[in-house]
Write a structure and sequence with these properties.
Elements: H1 2-66, H2 68-106
Length: about 110
């Protein structure tokens, strides 16, 4: 009877060990499933973020390129205004600059 009880105890331990192994395996599988789901959700969020950023970028490119003709015209006008201003200033002070240079060249120092 003692041997039978010992055999029965071993069988119970083996059954408990198998049950524990099944619980551990089920837990691992559940964890892997949660990780896979989290990865899929993360990939989806990343794709949505990239699409949103790309739409914003394309919108800004469209906005800036739509005005490129106006920007070019404005820049050409500003450039012409600045060139005219520089020519006017150069003409205004050129006589004084020439006189100053002549004075420096013709002045003899002892």
């Amino acid at each position: 009877m003692e041997a039978n009880r010992g055999q029965n105890g071993i069988q119970q331990l083996l059954a408990a060990e198998q049950e524990a192994q099944q619980i551990v395996n089920a837990s691992k599988n559940a964890k892997l499933a949660r990780l896979k789901q989290a990865k899929e959700e993360g990939d989806k969020d990343i794709a949505e973020f990239r699409a949103r950023i790309e739409r914003e970028f394309q919108r800004k490119v469209a906005e800036s390129s739509g005005d490129s003709g106006a920007n070019v015209k404005r820049l050409e006008q500003e450039t012409e205004t600045k060139i005219h201003h520089l020519k006017t200033e150069a003409a205004r002070i050129s006589y004084d600059v020439v006189q100053m240079l002549l004075k420096q060249v013709t002045t003899v120092k002892n």
